[in-house]
């Protein structure tokens, strides 16, 4: 599990979701408008659906978490969506790093 710090809040999500989110954000061009992102997460131990905006310059801090591995509803779908978005941007000339 990974802790995701965004706008002063901490969410815990799966490794796969955190990796897909980072990979997506780094493909966003600097002149691209904010994109809404929805991911499953834990907040204060409760399962939540987090929806927020990201840009190429969104400061995200992802760290390891002591939270035990917890299956999150919708995690596979979130990864698929984020990977699809990253591939779409990569296919129009923005590099998917990593």
Concise account of the structure shown:
The chain is globular and about 40 Å long. The protein has 98 residues and is of the alpha+beta class. The chain has helices spanning 15-27, 75-91; strands at 2-6, 9-13, 35-43, 46-54, 61-64.
Structural commentary:
The longest helix has 17 residues, at 75-91. The chain is 31% helix and 33% strand. The two termini are 19 Å apart. The mean pLDDT is 91. Strands 2-1-5 form a three-stranded antiparallel beta sheet. The chain has a two-stranded antiparallel sheet with strand order 3-4. The protein has 98 residues and is an alpha+beta fold. A hairpin with a 2-residue loop joins strand 3 and strand 4.
Output the keywords:
about 100 residues, alpha+beta, 3-stranded antiparallel sheet, two-stranded antiparallel sheet, 2 helices, 5 strands, about 30% helix, globular
Largest sheet: 3 strands, antiparallel
Sheet-strand content, in percent, reads 25-35%
Radius of gyration: 13 Å
The residue fraction in helices comes out at 25-40%
Shape: globular
Number of helices: 2
Count the beta strands.
5
Low-confidence stretches: none
SSE pattern, N- to C-terminal: EEHEEEH
Distance between the termini: 19 Å
Mean pLDDT: 91
> What is the strand arrangement across the widest sheet?
2-1-5
Structural classification? alpha+beta
């Amino acid at each position: 599990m990974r802790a995701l710090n965004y706008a002063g809040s901490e969410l815990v999500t799966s490794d796969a979701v955190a990796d897909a989110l980072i990979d997506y954000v780094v493909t966003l061009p600097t002149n691209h408008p904010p994109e809404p992102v929805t991911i499953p997460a834990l907040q204060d131990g409760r399962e939540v659906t987090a929806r927020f905006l990201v840009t190429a310059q969104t400061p995200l801090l992802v760290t390891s978490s002591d939270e035990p591995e917890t299956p999150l509803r919708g995690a596979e779908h979130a990864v698929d969506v984020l990977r699809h978005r990253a591939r779409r941007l990569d296919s129009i000339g923005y590099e998917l790093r990593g």
